[in-house]
Structures are given as structure tokens and as C-alpha cells.
């Protein structure tokens, strides 16, 4: 079964590029709950949903 495009996720580097932000601001967004994120273990790091990034950009533009 294919995942929808919006259900894909980014690592922190991809998310920073997509959001055009720094690593520290990205982690700020995650810790404050503005981006929906999850961990894949200690070595894999944090992942965020692409849909969460798109939603954040829509809210930011308002």
C-alpha cells in the first residue's frame, strides 16, 4: 500500500531545508510542540511529518 505524499516524514536536515530555518530553531519548534515529531532511537534522531511542516508554514503566513 502506498503512503500519501503528506504522510511522509523528514529528518532534521530535510525539515530545516523545507522550512528554511536553522537547526536550533527547528529543535525549538519541536520542543514547543509546533511541529509534530517522533524519535527513531538515539542514532536515527528526530523525524517530523511533512504534513506538520506544511501546516506550520500555512499558520506562519497568516
Automatic annotation (TrEMBL):
Organism: Taurinivorans muris
Organism ancestry: Bacteria, Pseudomonadati, Thermodesulfobacteriota, Desulfovibrionia, Desulfovibrionales
Protein name: Helix-turn-helix domain-containing protein
Residue ranges constituting the Helix-turn-helix domain according to the UniProt record: 13-54
Top-rank lineage group of the source organism: Bacteria
InterPro entries in alphabetical order: HTH_17 (IPR041657)
UniProt-listed Pfam families: HTH_17
Amino acid at each position: 500500500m502506498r503512503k500519501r505524499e503528506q504522510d511522509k516524514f523528514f529528518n532534521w536536515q530535510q525539515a530545516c531545508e523545507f522550512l528554511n530555518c536553522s537547526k536550533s530553531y527547528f529543535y525549538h519548534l519541536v520542543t514547543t510542540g509546533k511541529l509534530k515529531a517522533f524519535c527513531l532511537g538515539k542514532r536515527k534522531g528526530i523525524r517530523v511529518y511533512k504534513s506538520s511542516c506544511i501546516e506550520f508554514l500555512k499558520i506562519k503566513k497568516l
